[in-house]
Amino acid sequence: MIRRGKARGQIQDDADEDILIDLVSGAYFYYLTFTPEKLSTEDWLKKTMKILATGVKT
């Protein structure tokens, strides 16, 4: 998914794929473990990707 985003120009070429994966998976683990209010996985991912894209989007 990250490579496709890079190929389409949606993610910077120099963005580290492993770090992006760690950021999302770590944030999701934290959310599941410590947040009492639960969103669906899809809703959580949409919100997270919107926030993350602001920093890595070209």
TrEMBL record:
Keywords: Transcription, Transcription regulation. Residues 1-42 form the Tetracyclin repressor-like C-terminal domain. The keyword Glycosyltransferase does not apply. Pfam families: TetR_C_11 (PF16859). It comes from the Bacteria. Signal peptide: none annotated. This is Tetracyclin repressor-like C-terminal domain-containing protein. It comes from Cytobacillus dafuensis.
